[in-house]
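Exercise 7b. C-alpha cells:
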C-alpha cells in the first residue's frame, strides 16, 4: 500500500513537472512571449502539412514560427487588435468557437443515441390538448395541469372514454374529429416533450399531463411497430381537386381506372407515365423524391408503404388533389447509426430538445461555481418594486444607498442595482398578482446569462485546446490584414518594382530549347507515309486533298511550340533545326512531325510569367520586412526549454 502511494505521488509530481515545463517561455519576440505549450500545439497540428513536398523538422519550424511572431508583434505595436473591424470579425469567430464549450456535450450525445433508437420504431398515439401560451406563468400552468389531471382521473375510472374526451375537450380540432388519433410517427415528427411522452410508455398507457410549447397534453400510446424506413416511388396522376367540377372528377376517375387496367394487361408503367398530369414528375418518369412517414398525404403514403417489391404497383388511390397509381422503385430501411449521426446532431441543434442540454449545463455551472442566492436580500429587492406600476410597465428602478449582494458565484457578485435595472428593462403588461412570479423568472434568466458569461470568460484558462484555437484565429486575422497591406498589395500594385524584379530573376523562368512544329497522327500507316511524302515535297494541295478524302477522325492534326520534354516531340529531331520526320509509331498510331524552326532556350516574357514574378517579388519584400522586424523586435530563445522540448518532439 505504501509503495502504491509513493508511486502515485511520483507520477503526480512528474505530471505537474511536465505541465509546468510547458508553461515556461520558449522564446520572446519583443514583448510577445511564446510558451513551450503553444509551440508544441502548433507544431504537432501542422507538422504533417506539406510533409510530402517540404517537410519541416522542429528547428526549421521554430524559425518559421519566430518569423510569424515577429509580424504579430508588429500588428500589436500598430494596435490593429483594437480596430472596430478586427473586434467585430474576431468576436464573430470566437463566438462560434465557444459554442461547443458552452453546452452539455454529454447530453447531446445521449440525445443523438436516443433519437436514433426511437427512429427504429414508430408509435401510434392519441392525445387531448389544453391550449396554453408558452410564456404562461407557473401559477397559470398549475391551474391547467390540475384540470387535466382531473380529466385523466375520469378517463381512468371509466367515467368518460379517452376518445369522447378528445372529441369534446381537445383544443386540437384536427385530431379531435378522430378521437384524438394522430397516426404513426417517429423521432422528430413531433415536438420533443410529446415524442418522449408517447415513446416512454407502454401501449394502452395514458400519460400524466405533458407540457409542450402548445399547451398540456394527455397522451395515449395505442400501438408500436418497426420503422417503415423510406421509399422511392413513381406515380401516374390525374387532377381532381376540391375545385374540380363533377365532370372533371369523373374524367379523372375514368382515366386512372383505364391506366390501372392497362397495367393489369401487361403494359409498362414508364410507358404510361406520359399520360400523367403531374408536370413536376412526368419528365422524370413519374419519380418522386424519397420520403418517409408523415411526409405525404395519408392515403398516398399508406399505399406507397404497402408495396413490397420493386415494380409492384397500387390500385387507384384517391387523395384530396386527385387520383394516383403508384409504383415502388426502392424500399430502404434505417441506415446504420454512424451514417446518420451528424444528420441527427444537426436536427437536435434545431430542435427544442437541445434546451435540455442547455438547462443541464447551467445547472452544472451553478454547482461548479457554488451559485448561492441570499433570499433575504432578494426579498428586499422585490419589495423595492411597485407592483401596480410594474404591471402597467411604468415602474422605474429606484436608486439605493446600499448595493446589496443578491447572489454570489466563483469570485463574482450579482448586485441589487444590476437586478433592478434588468427588471426595469423587461417590464410588460400583466396582472398585478403575477408580478412577483414574473420577477423571479427574470431573475433566473439574468442569473443564468451571468454565469454562462462568466464561463465564457474562463474558456481560455480552462481548455488549452480552445486557448490555442482562439489564439490562432486572432493572430491569423491580424496577420492577414497586415501582410496584405505590407506585402501582397504593395507587390501587386508596384509596376516598376515588378519589372525591376523580373529583370533580376528572369533567368529563373526560362524556356528550354523549343521548336515550332506541326504534327499529324493517324492509325493507318499507309496514310502516314502519304502525308510524309506530301509534306516533305511541299505538295500542300495534294495534302489537303488527301485529308479531305479521309474522315475527320482518321487524322489528328495539331501545331504549336514544344519544349524538349514534350511527349509529342521525337528525340531525334534535336540534331536538326528544321525538317520533316516520320512516320514514327506513337502509341497505337503513326506520327509525322514537321519542324519549322528551332528556338534556343531563353527567358520567358514578363506577361507569360507575371503571376510567378509577383509571387517572387512578394517573397523578396517579405524577407526584407522580416529583416527589419528582427532589428526592431529582439528575439530571445530559451535554450534549456528548447532542448527539453525538441527532445520530446523528436520521439
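Sequence design result:
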Amino acid at each position: 500500500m505504501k509503495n502504491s502511494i509513493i508511486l502515485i505521488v511520483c507520477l503526480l509530481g512528474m505530471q505537474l513537472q511536465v505541465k509546468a515545463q510547458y508553461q515556461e517561455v520558449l522564446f520572446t519576440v519583443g514583448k510577445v512571449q511564446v510558451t513551450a505549450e503553444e509551440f508544441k500545439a502548433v507544431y504537432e497540428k501542422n507538422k504533417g502539412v506539406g510533409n510530402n513536398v517540404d517537410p519541416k523538422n522542429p528547428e526549421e519550424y521554430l524559425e518559421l514560427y519566430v518569423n510569424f511572431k515577429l509580424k504579430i508583434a508588429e500588428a500589436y505595436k500598430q494596435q490593429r487588435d483594437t480596430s472596430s473591424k478586427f473586434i467585430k470579425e474576431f468576436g464573430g469567430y470566437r463566438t462560434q468557437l465557444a459554442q461547443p464549450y458552452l453546452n452539455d456535450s454529454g447530453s447531446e450525445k445521449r440525445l443523438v443515441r436516443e433519437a436514433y433508437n426511437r427512429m427504429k420504431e414508430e408509435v401510434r398515439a392519441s392525445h387531448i390538448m389544453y391550449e396554453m401560451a408558452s410564456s404562461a406563468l407557473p401559477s397559470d400552468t398549475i391551474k391547467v395541469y390540475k384540470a387535466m389531471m382531473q380529466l385523466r382521473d375520469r378517463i381512468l375510472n371509466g367515467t368518460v372514454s379517452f376518445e369522447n374526451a378528445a372529441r369534446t375537450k381537445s383544443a386540437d380540432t384536427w385530431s379531435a374529429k378522430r378521437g384524438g388519433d394522430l397516426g404513426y410517427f417517429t423521432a422528430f415528427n413531433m415536438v420533443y416533450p410529446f415524442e418522449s411522452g408517447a415513446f416512454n410508455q407502454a401501449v394502452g398507457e395514458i400519460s400524466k399531463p405533458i407540457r409542450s410549447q402548445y399547451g398540456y397534453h394527455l397522451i395515449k400510446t395505442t400501438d408500436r411497430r418497426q420503422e417503415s424506413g423510406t421509399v422511392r416511388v413513381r406515380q401516374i396522376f390525374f387532377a381532381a381537386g376540391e375545385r374540380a367540377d363533377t365532370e372533371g372528377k369523373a374524367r379523372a376517375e375514368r382515366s386512372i381506372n383505364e391506366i390501372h387496367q392497362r397495367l393489369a394487361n401487361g403494359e409498362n408503367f414508364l410507358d404510361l407515365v406520359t399520360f400523367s398530369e403531374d408536370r413536376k414528375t412526368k419528365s422524370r418518369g413519374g419519380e418522386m423524391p424519397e420520403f418517409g412517414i408523415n411526409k405525404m398525404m395519408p392515403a398516398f403514403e399508406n399505399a406507397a408503404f404497402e408495396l413490397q417489391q420493386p415494380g409492384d404497383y397500387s390500385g387507384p388511390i384517391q387523395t384530396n388533389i386527385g387520383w394516383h397509381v403508384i409504383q415502388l422503385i426502392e424500399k430502404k430501411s434505417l441506415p446504420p447509426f454512424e451514417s446518420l449521426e451528424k444528420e441527427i446532431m444537426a436536427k437536435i441543434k434545431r430542435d427544442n430538445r437541445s434546451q435540455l442540454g442547455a438547462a443541464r449545463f447551467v445547472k452544472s455551472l451553478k454547482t461548479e461555481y457554488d451559485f448561492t442566492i441570499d433570499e433575504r436580500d432578494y426579498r428586499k429587492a422585490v419589495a423595492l418594486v411597485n407592483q401596480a406600476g410594474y404591471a402597467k410597465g411604468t415602474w422605474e428602478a429606484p436608486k439605493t444607498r446600499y448595493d446589496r449582494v443578491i447572489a454570489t458565484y466563483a469570485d463574482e457578485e450579482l448586485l441589487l442595482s444590476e437586478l433592478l435595472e434588468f427588471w426595469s428593462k423587461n417590464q410588460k403588461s400583466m396582472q398585478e398578482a403575477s408580478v412577483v412570479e414574473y420577477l423571479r423568472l427574470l431573475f433566473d434568466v439574468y442569473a443564468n446569462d451571468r454565469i454562462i458569461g462568466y464561463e465564457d470568460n474562463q474558456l481560455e484558462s480552462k481548455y488549452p485546446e480552445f486557448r490555442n484555437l482562439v489564439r490562432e484565429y486572432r493572430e491569423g486575422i491580424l496577420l492577414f490584414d497586415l501582410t496584405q497591406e505590407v506585402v501582397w498589395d504593395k507587390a501587386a500594385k508596384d509596376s516598376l518594382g515588378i519589372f525591376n524584379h523580373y529583370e533580376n530573376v528572369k533567368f529563373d523562368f526560362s524556356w528550354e530549347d523549343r521548336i515550332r512544329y506541326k504534327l499529324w497522327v493517324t492509325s493507318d500507316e499507309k496514310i502516314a507515309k502519304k502525308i510524309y511524302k506530301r509534306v516533305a515535297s511541299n505538295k500542300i494541295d495534294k495534302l489537303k486533298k488527301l485529308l479531305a478524302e479521309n474522315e475527320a477522325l482518321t487524322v489528328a492534326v495539331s501545331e504549336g511550340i514544344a519544349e524538349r520534354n514534350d511527349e509529342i516531340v521525337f528525340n531525334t529531331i534535336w540534331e536538326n533545326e528544321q525538317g520533316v520526320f516520320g512516320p514514327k509509331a506513337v502509341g497505337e498510331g503513326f506520327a509525322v512531325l514537321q519542324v519549322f524552326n528551332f528556338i534556343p532556350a531563353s527567358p520567358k516574357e514578363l506577361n507569360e510569367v507575371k503571376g510567378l514574378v509577383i509571387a517572387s517579388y512578394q517573397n523578396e519584400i517579405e524577407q526584407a520586412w522580416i529583416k527589419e522586424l528582427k532589428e526592431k523586435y529582439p528575439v530571445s530563445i530559451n535554450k534549456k526549454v528548447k532542448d527539453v522540448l525538441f527532445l520530446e518532439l523528436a520521439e
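Instructor comment: Residues 464-493 form the longest helix (30 residues). Residues 1-19 have pLDDT under 50 and may be disordered.
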